[in-house]
Every structure is written in structure tokens, then in C-alpha cells.
Amino acid sequence: MSITPSPVPGPESQPAAESAAQSAGARSETKSSNTPIIVLAIVMVLGLGGLFLYSKSLSDRLEQAQLSLQASLASQGQSLQQIALRLDQTDTRQSELQGEVGATKETLGSTRAELQKTRQSAAELAKEQQAAKQELASQLSQLAEVQQDTRGNLGDLSSDVLGVKGEVKTTQSELEKTRSELQRVIGDLGAQSDLIAHTRGDLESLRARGDRDYVEFDLLKSAKRQKVGTLQLELRNTDVKRQKYTVNLIADDRTIEKKDKTVFEPVQFYQIGYRQATEIVVQQILKDRIVGYVSAPKVRDTPTTAAAR
After folding, report:
1. Longest C-alpha distance within the chain, in Å?
2. Pairing with 193, which of 55, 71, 94, 234 sits 20 to 30 Å away (CA)?
């Protein structure tokens, strides 16, 4: 076996080896220079991924917070609507209460005014009663003086008694004659009536007595209220067939309806200041017309009697 010595590389082979070594070194240097870039890229990718995940999580949280905020705003809006409705109801109730308070104040003011008027009327009535007492005392004193004077004049009057008795007899005979021609009946208020006059002569006889006032009237339905003596009359209706009529009496600021009264029926009512009743007697009932007279007392109640009543 022969050993052949390796040929010594020549100058042509040395550059090739050097270029291969250089290429390998260049590749090694390239690899070593790209490694930081790759690492940086990986870090950037990981960072971007984490940033994406964080952004997504943050977006989800923001969306949830927005939904929660919208729900809270909707709930608060409903609460505000309820509060506004309650405020409106409160304002309405307050207005009603203010109206009730105003009405109560007006009623209270009216009640106070009426109470003041009542007190004033009571004070005036007390003054009138005191004046009536004083007047009564004065009248009693005058009556005592008159009685004393009358006792002194009894002797003088005895001579005139015979003449008076004669006149009384004459008057009594005339009155008995008149009473035989006139009638007394019960009025519509249940009180004993005055003598009823059926004719003009009867009415003149009643006037001659002098204890009452007699005023004749001829009242038409179409006419307005007619003043007759101390009152006013207003004819409302007549029924000639049944001989009935309806009339309104106006006296002392009062209106009294007398309905379905008949001919010669004493229609009675009482006026302030008179103890005896005023009477209306209708002598004729025609179509839409009545004819008759009013009989009114002449003597008024004394202040003491009126105050007592």
C-alpha cells in the first residue's frame, strides 16, 4: 500500500476556501443580526395581541357600563315622571285646599257679619224694651193721675149719665137692627170674623160703627198689583161656575196666597202691629174680576204688647 502524500493546496484552492469561510461567516453574522429583529417582532405581536385583548375587554366593559347607565337613566326618568305626577297632584290638591280655605274664610266672614247684626239687633231690642218699660211707667203714672181726676169729677159726670144712657139705648136698637141683617162667620184662619156686609148699605152700616176701616176694591186679573188700604192685592184666578177665586196678599214685605176662596168667605191674615186680623170679603166673582172690600182694624198694639209678643 502506498502512501500518497496529499497535495498541498495551491493558490487556486485557497481563495475558494476563504470565500466559503467568508460565506459561512456572513451567514452566521446574518443570523445573529436577524435574531433581535425576530424577537422584537415576536414581542410586538404579543404586545399587539395583549393590547387587542385589553381593548376588547375595555370595550366590553364600556358597553356594559353604557347599558347599565341607560337602564339607570330610564329608571331615573320613570322616577322623575312619577315625581312630576305627584307634584301635579300636590299642586291640584293645594289649589283645591286654597279654594276651600277661601270659601271657609268667606263663610266665616258672613257668619261674623250675621253675628254682628244679631248682636246689634239684640242691643236695639234691649233699648226698645227699656224704652217701652219707661213709656209704660209713664203711662201708668198718667193713668193714675187720670183716675184721680176722674174720681174728683164723678159728681159732675153723674148728671150726664142719663143722657148717655138714652143715646146708648138708641145706638143699641140701631145695632140690633143692623145685626139682624148682618152675619158673623168663622174666617179661613179659624178666628171669629167681623160682621159680613152683603150690600153697599151693609157696608155703610159697618163704617158707622167706627171700630174698623173698610176699603172697597174692584180687582181685575189682567191688572198688576192693586193697593187697597194697607196692603196690595193681585188676582190670580177666578172660577165663576164654582164661585171661587185665588188671590195674592202682599203686606209687611210678605206675599200670601189665598187659594180657592168662595164668595162672602172672610179671608183673614195678621199684619205686624195689629192684634186683630185683617179680612178680605169678596161680594162678587166674575170672569177675571172680583169685587169686595177689605176690613182692617184701627187700633194697633201698644209698644209693650208688641215687644212682649
Report:
1. 226
2. 234
Residues forming a β-bridge with 254: 251
- CA–CA separation, 304 vs 297, rounded Å? 18
Mean per-residue pLDDT of the chain = 80
Read off φ and ψ for residue 294, nearest 5 degrees: -110, 130
For residue range 141-178, what is the model confidence (pLDDT) as tens digits?
Answer: 888 877 777 666 665 656 665 665 666 566 666 555 55
What are the distances in angstroms from CA 150 to CA 89, 138, 156, 225, 281?
88, 18, 10, 49, 42
Strand partners, 247: 235, 258
Task: Tell me how crowded residue 178 is: count the other CB atoms within 10 A of its CB.
Answer: 17
DSSP string, 236-301: EEEETTTTEEEEEEEETTEEEEEEEEETT--EEE--TT-SSPEEEEEEEEETTEEEEEEEEESPPP
Domain ranges across the chain: 17-155, 186-308
What's the CA gap between 238 and 247, in Å, rounded? 9
Residue 181: pLDDT band with limits 50, 70, 90: very low
The CATH T-level fold of domain 186-308 is Tick-borne Encephalitis virus Glycoprotein; domain 1 (2.60.98)
For residue 104, the one-letter residue type is T
* Contacts of residue 266, Cβ cutoff 8 Å, sequence gap at least 6: 185, 186, 187, 188, 193, 194, 196, 279, 280, 281
DSSP designation for 9: P
Burial of residue 267 (CB within 10 Å: 0-12, 13-18, 19+) is buried
Closest by CA position to 278, among listed 290, 289, 270: 270
Alpha carbon of residue 23 to chain centroid: 121
